Amino acid sequence: MPPRGIRSPGGGREVLESSQIDVENLVIETPTASSLLRAQDKECQDSDGEDRSVTDEADGNYQENIVSSKPLIVLKTSRVLRSNAVKHEPMQPGSPTSSQTETPNLAKRGREKHDDVATRPEKRVKKPAVDAKIKKYEKAFDEWLEDYKSKTQGLETFKTKNQELCMENNTLKKGLKKAQQDQKRMEALHSSEISLLQSECSKLRKKLEAAIDASKQDNLKYTKVSDSDITAEWGKLSFNIRDLVSQCLTKHPANENDEIETLMKRMKRFLPLSYCNVASLRAAVLRRMIWYIIKSAVFSGMRPIWYGAAGQMLTQVVYMASQGYINKSHCLKMASQMKQRAVASLNEDPQLHEKAEGAIYLLLEATKATVSKFIPDPMMALFEVKMKKIIMDAIDLHAMMMNSKAIFLQRWLGDDNNRSFTIYNREMMESMQSDVDTYTSRYVVEFVEAPGLVKYGNADGEDFEFNMILCKSSVIIRENGARSTLEDKTVHRAACDDKDFGKATAGSKSELEQ
After folding, report:
1. pLDDT tens digits for range 307-339
2. What secondary structure does DSSP assign to 419-459, as a single string?
3. How far apart are CA 32 and CA 27, in angstroms?
4. Where is the composition biased (Basic and acidic residues) (predicted)?
5. What letters, b where the CB count within 10 A reaches 16 and e where it falls short, cover 175-210?
6. Nearest to 270 by CA among 506, 485, 493, 482
7. What is the distance between the alpha carbons of residues 278 and 272, in angstroms, rounded to a whole number?
8. Cβ contacts of 371 within 8 Å, gap of 6 or more
9. For a disulfide at 477, which of 327, 405, 443, 464, Cβ 3.0-4.6 Å?
């Protein structure tokens, strides 16, 4: 351990505490290169171990030990207690000198130094005054540090969210890839289905084209029936009926008025005039009776007189459909289309017309029985001939109307079921009296003896919302107010209450239906 009072190399700021120096142990050593290097290393180690603040505040007496080329003085104290006096023993001859026995041990010397430093009290140094700027900078630094920490935490949060989003993105990518694969499979499946549908569509298109061609051929077979042909046949039928009544129904039975009432009962039509004027309408009632039989049996399908039972059913269907939906054009169009298809199938079987011969004979016999009391015996054969011709003409006219795409209906224009007298209308009715000025409006319809013919649609099977009167109804007119309507209805009700009258008409009605 170096003596106190001599500053050893790298010993710091030691103060000389004792003036005792062992001169005998003073050894002057010439520094060598290795010793100089060791001294410099030790000095650097000691300077680094000291506190910087203490070094800065040390007094000005501190001087660094700079290694020079001068001899280095090494002081070595004897190993005696400080409290005891130093004993000097004389050197004996032959004993080694101190320089020979005492060799400097730098490592040991360093350890002794450190032990001494640990026990040496530290020097109190005055604390430096803290500058306000330094505090400001420290405060700003703390704020920046807190901001940095918060931003670091936010960055970590963003990193976590980014990782979660990346994971979600990867999941969505996998789902998208799977969906794309499924879509490709579905597209392949749909493409196969589309090809199948296209093949089926082509087949159906071919069938449709074939059906259109067949329909065109049917249209080529279809011959339009002109209105003039129908009106000509209707006029011929009307003339033949008038001729039949005027030539064959000339007999006047004893109870003629009762017979006239019987015929009116069959036609479900009652006299609008008083009982005494029944005879004046005798010819008109007989003509209406013939028309009523033809209309019911042929035009309304009450008997299988046209193409047998098949023609009867078709006639009834068209008639009822037309009567029930007369104001609905689409229903009339459907009835027309149905009629065309059915008539085409009926024409392919000519035997159906032969089956109607028996029905024609029964109708002729029923008509003869109905008006037999008005037919003279010599005229019975002529009546049968003329009546059969009327029936055949009616069948031909019915066939023409059924082959047309338009719909024809027979209506008793001017007959309002006795509710009141209908004003005479020249556009719809035709008067059978030649001595009456029909251009005036003071006439009313007294009796309708022949129905009118009304056409719905056209020959092309279109425009069923429109209708036109092809043939006017034949009527008997009189001046308005000539007779009391109340008086006419009273006579009519009295005739209806007659039980004998009802019994007399029952048998004739059954014969007509047969």
Report:
1. 888 888 888 988 888 777 788 888 888 888 888
2. SSPPBP-TTTEEES-TTS-TTSS-EEEEEEEE-EEEEES-T
3. 15
4. 39-55, 112-125
5. eeeeeeeeeeeeeeeeeeeeeeeeeeeeeeeeeeee
6. 493
7. 9
8. 249, 263, 286, 289, 290
9. 443
